[in-house]
Amino acid sequence: MDILVFQHLDVEHPGIFRDFWREAGHRTRIVALNEGEAIPDLADFDVLAVMGGPMDVWETDLHDWLRPEMAAIRTWVRDLGRPYLGICLGNQLLAEALGGKTGRMAAPEVGMTRSALNPQGQADALFEGFAPELDVFQWHGAEVQSLPEDGVILAGNAACPVQAMRVGQNAWGLQFHVEMTPSTVAEWGAVPEYAASLERALGAERAAGLEGELARHLPRFNAMARQINDNFFRAIAG
C-alpha cells in the first residue's frame, strides 16, 4: 500500500511503524507540514497516518498549515472513506476536522499510565487480542473533549476519557503513543514544550528517570505497536 504520513516535527515520526511498513512492502511518503511541505494529491494514497506534535489544533494563527491539514483529513475520512490512523495530535486533529472539540487538560499526562478498553473497544478490530486494561505511554496536554459525528470512544481513563476512538468504519485515533523507539524520550525531551510538560507532570526527579523507565517497558510497547499495526491492516483489508 501507499501510506501518506502527516508529520509535524522531525522527532515525531512513525517510529517503529516504519519498520513494520518496510517489512510488509508498503511505500511511505512523509510530508513535513511544519517545514512547509505541500499536501500531495490524496488520490495517490491508500492510508493516511497522522503523527503527534507540540502544537495544538487551535493554534492555526501560529501554524497556518493546520487548516489545510484538517481540510485534507476531512476529505480523506468523510468524502473518500479511506483508512486513517492518528496518534496523539493525530487523534485530536481527527476529532477537530470532523466536528468534534479538543481542549487543554487540567494537567498534562506524561509517562506510563493505564487506560481501559470499554465494551466498544473490546469489540473493535483495532484492539483484537488485547486485555481490557492497557499499560500505555503518554505525552500530551490536550484532549478530545467532544466526539465528531460517527465517533465512538474505545478506551479512556480518569485523566483523559478519550484515549482511543473510531470515527466511522475506517478511521482510528489513539491519544497514547505506541510508536516509541529507544531514542524517543531523549528526542522529545529536547523539545521545549515537551520538556515543560514532562517536569510539570512528573517532577524533576522522575522526569530524569523516564528514559530508563521506558527502556524497561519498550519491548512490551513494541509488541503492542506490532499488534495494533497488524490489526489495522487486517481491518482495512476486510
From TrEMBL:
GO cellular component terms, A-Z: cytosol
Signal peptide coordinates: none
Location of the Glutamine amidotransferase domain: 22-184
EC number(s) from the headed UniProt entry: 6.3.5.2
Annotated keywords: Glutamine amidotransferase, Ligase, Transferase
Pfam families (alphabetical): GATase
Molecular function (Gene Ontology), one example: transferase activity
CDD domains registered for this protein in UniProt: GATase1_1
Protein name: Glutamine amidotransferase class-I
Organism: Paracoccus aminophilus JCM 7686
